[in-house]
Amino acid sequence: MSIHKIVITGGPCGGKTTALSRIQRDLSHLGYTVLIVPETATSLISGGVAPWTCGTNEEYQKCQMKLQLQKELIFEQAARTMAQDKILIVCDRGALDNKAYMTQEEFDTVLRDVGKTEEELRRSYDAVFHLVTAAKGAEEFYTFANNAARYESVAQAVDLDDRLIRAWEGSEHFTVIDNSVELREKLKNLIRAICAFLGEPEFQEVERKFLVAYPDLAALEARPDVRRVEIEQAYLPTVSGEEVRIRRWVEDGREIYYQTRKRRVNGKRLEVEQRLSQKGYAHLLEEAEQDVPPLRKTRYTLNYDGQVFQLDVYPCWQDQAVVKIELDAEDAAVRLPPELTLLREVTGEPAYKDHALAQAQA
User: Fold this and answer.
1) SS3 304
2) Helix or strand or coil: residue 233?
3) What is the band of 267 on the pLDDT scale with cuts at 50, 70, 90?
4) Which residues contact 241 (CB under 8 A, 6 or more apart)?
5) If residue 170 lies in a helix (H) or strand (E), which one and from where to where?
6) Cys-Cys link to 346, which of 25, 111, 148, 352 (CB 3.0-4.6 A)?
7) CA–CA separation, 303 vs 165, rounded Å?
8) How far apart are CA 180 and CA 136, in angstroms?
């Protein structure tokens, strides 16, 4: 059984409602049982539980977060009882959408109340897909007609869209679907991106990688939308064509451990990730390839012009760094942030893959 849980999010009038119907239809045709977790805020507010009816916004957000997590838990529990081979759980917004509607202090309080860290919430989803509001680049299609609860002006919709992107930045698989094409093509791009993530042969994941000059790290870290994570990753010997990588993520003093297995089955690239304990990570680290030391790098995740970039800075380099982006189409334009100076594109070059870089630093 294969169970994936993804989030469909985005700003007001981004096409999310239509997108959920398309996902249900198109992925069912590919053999998936599609389960839709309904938007939590809508059900609460329609039932009379809202920020303006509760004592404070913080108290309301505690209720919404608890209900969101409980609903997802129930859907996951139900999925595990089903006989189908491929199950896709689609969340109509996820737990970190709440962050866009709170101050940092309120958000920290809500996290303590549910006993979770921000990274734990982020890692509870396999992929996140953000549909940019029509207020960005398709203003003529921004309307209140299809949602009686919509109240945001164009400027407010743009601001909310930006806050939602910042809330999800740092997710391992995070794709922003912009308005460079009409809505019909925009939804096709979304389906392509989801299929690429799932490893379906109809669509391929488009990742581009660039070599850039060593950035001004102080300037980067001064940006409010930048996330910084320390990463250590090691590789286990390949057995029966299966690649195994283990990772330690450190952010704000919190450590999380993962194991990722990659293999190809019937021409499809399959990737399975699972959480590890600290002890489990240490045990597997002892089994890592002896001639390839653990690779260490600092990853900066930043958003620019509707695109999300991952900048990897390696301690062995003082003059360059690598930046990558996942795109939803082969011909999608890449707009590098002004803080980064392009040296050249290195997409597909074996020397710039992490495993090769780990070997090079040995």
Assistant:
1) strand
2) strand
3) low
4) 263, 264
5) none
6) 352
7) 8
8) 10
Whole-number Å distance between alpha carbons of 259 and 277: 10
Q: pLDDT for 164-211, tens place per residue?
A: 999 999 888 999 999 888 888 898 899 989 988 988 754 445 789 999
Cα dist from 77 to 72, 90, 306, whole Å: 9, 14, 35
Region at 6 (left for phi over 0; alpha for psi -120 to 50; beta for the rest): beta
Are residues 245 and 358 in contact, defined by beta-carbon separation less than 8 angstroms?
no
Average pLDDT over residues 79-93: 93
Distance CA 142, CA 183 (A): 12
SS3 content of the chain, % helix, strand, coil (to 5): 35, 30, 35
How far, in whole angstroms, is CA 298 from its chain's centroid?
18
Question: Nearest 5°: phi and psi at 299?
Answer: -105, 130
* Separation in Å, CA 245 to CA 155, 172, 238, 260, 267: 43, 14, 10, 5, 21
Question: Phi-psi category of 252—alpha, beta or left, where left has phi over 0 and alpha has psi -120 to 50?
Answer: left
One-letter identity of residue 235: Y
- In whole angstroms, give the CA distance from residue 115 to residue 326: 32
Any idea what DSSP says for residue 141? G
Torsion of CA 136, 141, 145, 149, to 10 degrees: -10
Q: Which two three-digit tokens encode residue 220?
A: 């980067």
Residue 188 to residue 328: CA distance in whole angstroms: 9
**DSSP reduced 3-state for 228:** strand
* Residue entry with tokens 């630093």: 361
CA angle 209, 291, 232 (to 5 degrees): 50
pTM: 0.66
Q: With contact defined as beta carbons under 8 Å apart, do 131 and 7 qualify? A: no
Distance CA 246, CA 257 (A): 7
Asked if 251 contacts 259 with a C-beta cutoff of 8 angstroms, the reply is: no
The residue length of the chain stands at: 362
What is the Cα–Cα distance from 107 to 98, expressed in whole angstroms?
A: 8
Cβ-count burial of 27 within 10 angstroms (0-12 exposed, 13-18 middle, 19+ buried)? buried
